[in-house]
Amino acid sequence: MLSKVKGHSGIKRLLINLVENERLGHAYLFAGPEGVGKAFTALQFFTFLSCPNARDGEPCGQCHVCQTMANLEFPDLHILGPGILPGHEHQRTIKIQEIRELGEFINYPPMQGPYKMVLINDAHLMTTEAANALLKVLEEPPSATLFILVSALDGRLPITIRSRCTGVWFGALEPGEIAQVLQEQGVSPDRAGMLGRVAGGSVRVALQLSEPEAWAFRQEALGHLLQGIHAQGLQRYAAARQLIEAVPKKWKNLLYTLLEYFAIDLLKVSMDPDARVVNEDFLDQIRQAASTERAVAFARGLLDLDRKQVYNVSLRAAMEGLLLGANR
């Protein structure tokens, strides 16, 4: 079933059963960590629904429908949000005008497939006005229309939106599943296995870290982070400065991911020194740094860091606050 989707066997079985039992709803929210295949699963499911030759949970992959879906050119597919369509990689918000255009798209019946299909990636980026406009659509959806909203931060979506979608939770992928994807991308088996173990269950992170520059950044960033946690006095500010200076603009989001993984590792090891961690190659240093008080302080500091970034506080100032809080 949907064999191009790695892992998530339960979700794949659920989606196919909904179709086979004619119980498919009109709106779903695919939630879970970043980089685990939520949007890709949605597109593969849309392809299965539209392919006239689909069998046993698999689209044929050869027909005109499958080819146009693969190229994101299928006329009954509408995509909003960053990260999928060319030119939208750095989109920061989903605005009301885009929802209005969506309304025009679903007003007409499907042209080639059984459904008009809408994928809203990073749905939490909708402005308040856009979310309110989408809510009206979800309250009275046209027939033969299927919505899939995708979000790693579904808690930021209005409860009114979430309540009108059937939630589907995607968990982290297993290291072996990630390694398989990397090997298909040409990464050697040994390196793919290692990257699969330190990627936190995310194919996206693993693919980033497969680049030598990104891997070097990870090593340097975690080194500065551990140094900053142990530092005293003005050395803490120096560690924060060194950490920020090590961050190329394109790796800023990767830095936040590394901080999240580190916070989880710190919490785990503070409770169980033998716990399985993401940053297994830094386990000895994490054990030395781990204490319940420090782990809780770092986790709180990370939440504050996220809030400060929303209000455009400088990254350096935010990182100084994070290390000051954790240095105890």
CATH class of the largest domain: Alpha Beta
Count of alpha and pi helical runs: 15
Helicity level, as a percent range? Answer: 40-55%
Q: Please indicate the percent range of residues in DSSP E strands (runs of 2 or more).
A: 5-15%
> How is the CATH topology of the largest domain named?
Rossmann fold
SSE order: HEHHEHEHEHEHHHHHHHHH
Superfamily (CATH H level) name of the largest domain: P-loop containing nucleotide triphosphate hydrolases
Q: On the 0-100 scale, what is the average pLDDT?
A: 88
Q: What ranges have pLDDT less than 50 throughout 5 or more consecutive residues?
A: none
Class based on secondary structure composition and strand pairing: alpha/beta
Compute the number of strand runs. Answer: 5
N- and C-termini, Cα separation = 50 Å
Please identify the oligomeric state: single chain
Count of individual domains: 3
Global shape: globular
Q: What is the CATH architecture term of the largest domain?
A: 3-Layer(aba) Sandwich
**What's the Cα radius of gyration?**
22 Å
